[in-house]
Design goal:
Length: about 110
C-alpha cells in the first residue's frame, strides 16, 4: 500500500534558484481565525526541480480541462484588478486572452 495525503489546497509556492517548493495545507477542524473560518494548517511540502514543476503544472492543467469538459468544474471569469477597473472596456484584455485566471500572484 502507498501512503496517501489529502490536502485542502496550496498555501504558497516559493521559487529559489532551480527549486520550487509547494506548501500543502488543510483546514483545521478545531482552530478558527478572526472571522470564525477554519484556519489553514501546513501539512506537507512538495519540492520540485523547475522542469518537473512545469511538467506537473501541464498535467494538472490537462486534468482541469478534462473536469471542465465533463461539466464537473466551471471556470470563473478573471477578477478585475484595480488597473482593469480604471480602464475602458476597449482597453481590457480580449476574452480569449492566453493568460489563465488561475495564476499565482508569485508570477504576476
Amino acid at each position: 500500500m502507498h501512503a496517501e495525503l489529502y490536502t485542502d489546497g496550496v498555501e504558497e509556492i516559493t521559487i529559489g534558484g532551480s527549486i520550487v517548493r509547494v506548501d500543502l495545507v488543510s483546514l483545521s477542524p478545531t482552530e478558527r481565525d478572526a472571522n470564525n473560518a477554519p484556519k489553514k494548517v501546513f501539512r506537507q511540502r512538495l519540492i520540485f526541480s523547475v522542469e518537473s514543476f512545469a511538467n506537473s503544472v501541464e498535467v494538472m492543467q490537462n486534468a482541469l480541462q478534462g473536469l471542465v469538459d465533463a461539466g464537473a468544474v466551471r471556470r470563473n471569469p478573471p477578477r478585475a484588478s484595480t488597473e482593469q477597473v480604471q480602464t475602458t472596456s476597449t482597453e481590457r484584455e480580449p476574452p480569449n486572452s492566453p493568460r489563465s485566471p488561475n495564476v499565482s500572484s508569485n508570477f504576476r
